[in-house]
Amino acid sequence: MQHSPLYDCYQDTAKLTEFAGWLLPGQFIGLTPEHRAVRTQAGLFDISHMGQIEIQGEQVLDRVNLLIPTDIAGLKPGQACYTVLLNEQGGILDDIILYVQSDTQVKLIVNAACTTKDLAWLHRHLPHLAIQRTPGVLMALQGPQATDILQALTPAALDVIPRFGHQRVSTTFGSLWLARTGYTGEDGWEIQAEPAVGQALWRALLQRGAVPCGLAARDMLRLEAGLHLYGQDMDETMTPLAAGLGWLVNWEKGDFSGRAALLAQKKQGVAQKLVGLRGTGRRIFRPGYPVQAEGQTVGRVTSGTLSLSLGQPIGFAYVNTDWAKLGTALTVRVREQELPVTVVKRTFYTRPE
Amino acid sequence: MTLTYPNELHYTASHEYVALRDDVAVVGITAFAVDELGDITYLELPPVGQTVQRGERFGTIESVKAVSDLYAPVSGVVTEVHSELVDAPERIAEDPYGVGWLLKIKITQPEETQELLTAAAYQAQLGG
After folding, report:
1. Domains, chain A, ordered by start
2. Shortest alpha-carbon distance between residue B101 and chain A (Å)
3. Hey, is the C-beta of A284 within 8 angstroms of any chain B C-beta?
4. How far apart are the first and last CA of chain B?
5. Of chain A's two ends, which shows fewer C-beta atoms within 10 Å, N or C?
6. What is the ipTM of this complex?
7. Is the pLDDT of residue A288 over 60?
8. In chain B, positions 1-20, which contact chain A (CB-CB < 8 Å)?
9. Would an 8 Å CB–CB cutoff place B42 in contact with chain A?
10. B65 near B56, Cβ under 8 Å?
């Protein structure tokens, strides 16, 4: 089991849980107060388990562009985008955020469980580029007060950094890399630092009012915000078209890994689509539970929770395309019960402006 | 949080507790079970009058994290259920041995209570 460089900062206060080979905080004071902190103030997550991969070399953007359906040719240093790595069949190898650091360097933040696989894939498909995994602390400070809390620690103007913008800044603890990205549906930052700097920063952020949060809160927050969890809501057998990530595909950009397969699927139509489901009552639908219509199984749940923001059960499911229209009434079999659900947009929660 | 297991109660390996009041068993789930479940979201209890057999499922409890069946620690007839908790199952965590009681069973096989675990035996099982 791997430990994060921040392990000593929370091992006495967190309830620890195993995730993707790492021992990480499952929760601190509790799911409900942690969730509330992120929605109304600021929460702090250790995400050091996530893979950080730097790719360096001439024409790095053009070469990486061949592996993803998004067009990154126009991205400038300091910009970033959410995208997916695709295999030749159009299957999703991983979902990632790609940060352009210079004309010759990009950084990927990838799922912990996919890091080894991604590295092998990148080495195979980018033989002329330098690819390395970069260690260090990664944490996420998320919530409406995240920017104010962080601003007190650096002279760099954070307000002017747009969503998906990123830059290196100085603080009294040392140098940090900040990105205005996250996995909660709130404004916030993902922060990379050397271990000692990261530990000092973690403690300073808590002193300034950030609430430490665990994976349980993170999972509910991302689901409410309509964000996918790799390995649950998508995998290598799913394409972006089936997973509701068609907006990532730029058909005009030229060839990329999986394009022919995606084009064929687009013409033929996808058999199943990832949809949002909203229920009533208090029962949670969980991964694997069957989705039914007219007595037939028409899909399966991939994620679900009892949303604290909505007070209702919500989830994602792959359902046969005929049953995937918004407003369609379906049921989820939760053990011996058939619970009524409605197909809704996957973005269950949008932060107030 | 320190989890407690009152000495005057009896316990099952499936993490129910029993408070014996003459021929009635007051049943709930232990502090360990509550802590393992985390945020409790749903509770399903049987109707009053239902006959239950020792070891048989009488209900369901769910949290954000997990689904768990509830098992009758003794055989008998359900005489009362704590139905207020169905609408507010999170209250079980406030005090599993107090407000968190789930149901009362009129015991029909008194000898079965000999099979229940003492607080020490239950804790030994948790430790092992």
Report:
1. 2-46+136-224 (3.30.1360.120), 49-134+239-268 (3.30.70.1400), 271-344 (2.40.30.110)
2. 20
3. yes
4. 20
5. C
6. 0.87
7. yes
8. none
9. yes
10. no
